[in-house]
Amino acid sequence: AHLDRIAAVDGDVHAFLHIDAEGALSQAAASDARRANGDALHALDGVPIAVKDVLTTTGLPTTCGSKILEGWVPPYDATVVKKIKNAGLPILGKTNMDEFAMGSSTEHSAYGPTKNPWKLDRIPGGSGGGSAAAVAAFEAPLALGTDTGGSIRQPGAVTGTVGVKPTYGSVSRYGLVALANSLDQVGPVTRTVLDSALLHELIGGHDPLDSTSTTTPVTGLVDAARAGGTGDLKGVKVGVIKELAGEGWAPDVMAKFNESVDILTKLGADVVEVSTPSFQHAMAAYYLILPAECSSNLAKFDAMRYGLRVTPDGDPSAEDVMKASRDAGFGDEVKRRIILGTYALSSGYYDAYYGQAQKIRTLIIEDFKKAFEQVDVLVSPTSPSTAFPLGAKLDDPLAMYMQDLATIPANLAGTPGISVPAGVSDVDGLPVGVQLLAPVLEDARLYRVGAALE
Ligand code: GLN
């Protein structure tokens, strides 16, 4: 049924870069056989899933939305991919994304943008717009995304889906083509909070192949979502983040956000205002730390080992080939960040830029700590506006970066976050998302409050 749906709508939506109909059908048949045999099944056995094209998949292309990896078929599965395969989830295909996960609209994909299923002239968010659109368009019931600065949560908000960034280190990054290693996390994209909890528990847990993997078991999320589903939030303290509201936030988004806060109060939560003054510097710090890390990560695409190779005429040196290949293989946003990152890391500038950004990162971690001494979870709108028209911010990188004002602090601090649908805007009828944030390793709180709000 999902393959039929993809055939019917993906020509318009373009959520997928590769569709693996044959593989998905044979995995589905194997699941049917297990069921017929009376085998013990995982709760999601046989439920199809779409995978962001930044996660490696044996035998299926992995492009990261970039021309530089066009045609590359990885010889290994990411740990999260291995886990979903082992649990019997058929993989429908790989989803579109901004090139190397840089962007907030999926327009930086080298393979053309994904459209928002709610309105095809609107962006589906980014960088994981393909995963969010696939779920919103009923092409897939579940998807995997990655969130480095909001790429699961912001697409979730603008497509009316649920998106979760787990605690840093609690889901393996092995086989996730790194954007910024200290910020990246894999997480679920679904239509309900309970579905996210089921998928999150499945993909989470320690992985010896990831040196930053935590050893704490990832459990209790499904129970928390079920408890939240009863709608009782008595005893839960919720903090509204003062700095993530007001000026710069669209009035229609704020209206829906305020309604959600009222619902939390009605369900028995104790809602107070909390201040996190360093959050206003989060974006500036992020756009130094992220380019610094990604400029180093992307150095491996040198046209020698894999991916695109462009050989200039004449008698080119290896360096000439690298230059020509990287020039042809990377898009403008990727080049912009490589230049920014190498500049910020160069000797003489390191302390002034990278060092300062790291200090802000510490202040943000301290702001979170202080806030969580007062409340159990924090709440804010997920993104400043509903889905904007395709092309509207393409020539203005700063305007694009502003989409992640509210989502970036959690990546800098390693804390978990969820975006939950909060209804549609009274102005344009498009979805609005509410973001919940919890302390490190307290992801269960997101599910309890998220399921109550849903
Ligand atoms: N939009 C942010 C960026 O461009 C977030 C990216 C992400 O989370 N992968 O960096």
TrEMBL record:
<dbReference type="GO" id="GO:0005524">
    <property type="term" value="F:ATP binding"/>
</dbReference>
<dbReference type="InterPro" id="IPR023631">
    <property type="entry name" value="Amidase_dom"/>
</dbReference>
<comment type="similarity">
    <text>Belongs to the amidase family. GatA subfamily.</text>
</comment>
<comment type="subunit">
    <text>Heterotrimer of A, B and C subunits.</text>
</comment>
<protein>
    <recommendedName>
        <fullName>Glutamyl-tRNA(Gln) amidotransferase subunit A</fullName>
        <ecNumber>6.3.5.7</ecNumber>
    </recommendedName>
</protein>
<keyword id="KW-0436">Ligase</keyword>
<keyword id="KW-0547">Nucleotide-binding</keyword>
<feature type="active site" description="Charge relay system">
    <location>
        <position position="127"/>
    </location>
</feature>
<dbReference type="GO" id="GO:0050567">
    <property type="term" value="F:glutaminyl-tRNA synthase (glutamine-hydrolyzing) activity"/>
</dbReference>
<dbReference type="InterPro" id="IPR004412">
    <property type="entry name" value="GatA"/>
</dbReference>
<feature type="domain" description="Amidase">
    <location>
        <begin position="1"/>
        <end position="446"/>
    </location>
</feature>
<comment type="function">
    <text>Allows the formation of correctly charged Gln-tRNA(Gln) through the transamidation of misacylated Glu-tRNA(Gln) in organisms which lack glutaminyl-tRNA synthetase. The reaction takes place in the presence of glutamine and ATP through an activated gamma-phospho-Glu-tRNA(Gln).</text>
</comment>
<dbReference type="GO" id="GO:0006412">
    <property type="term" value="P:translation"/>
</dbReference>
<keyword id="KW-0648">Protein biosynthesis</keyword>
<dbReference type="Pfam" id="PF01425">
    <property type="entry name" value="Amidase"/>
</dbReference>
<dbReference type="InterPro" id="IPR036928">
    <property type="entry name" value="AS_sf"/>
</dbReference>
<feature type="active site" description="Charge relay system">
    <location>
        <position position="52"/>
    </location>
</feature>
<keyword id="KW-0067">ATP-binding</keyword>
<dbReference type="GO" id="GO:0030956">
    <property type="term" value="C:glutamyl-tRNA(Gln) amidotransferase complex"/>
</dbReference>
<dbReference type="InterPro" id="IPR020556">
    <property type="entry name" value="Amidase_CS"/>
</dbReference>
<feature type="active site" description="Acyl-ester intermediate">
    <location>
        <position position="151"/>
    </location>
</feature>
<dbReference type="GO" id="GO:0016740">
    <property type="term" value="F:transferase activity"/>
</dbReference>
<dbReference type="InterPro" id="IPR000120">
    <property type="entry name" value="Amidase"/>
</dbReference>
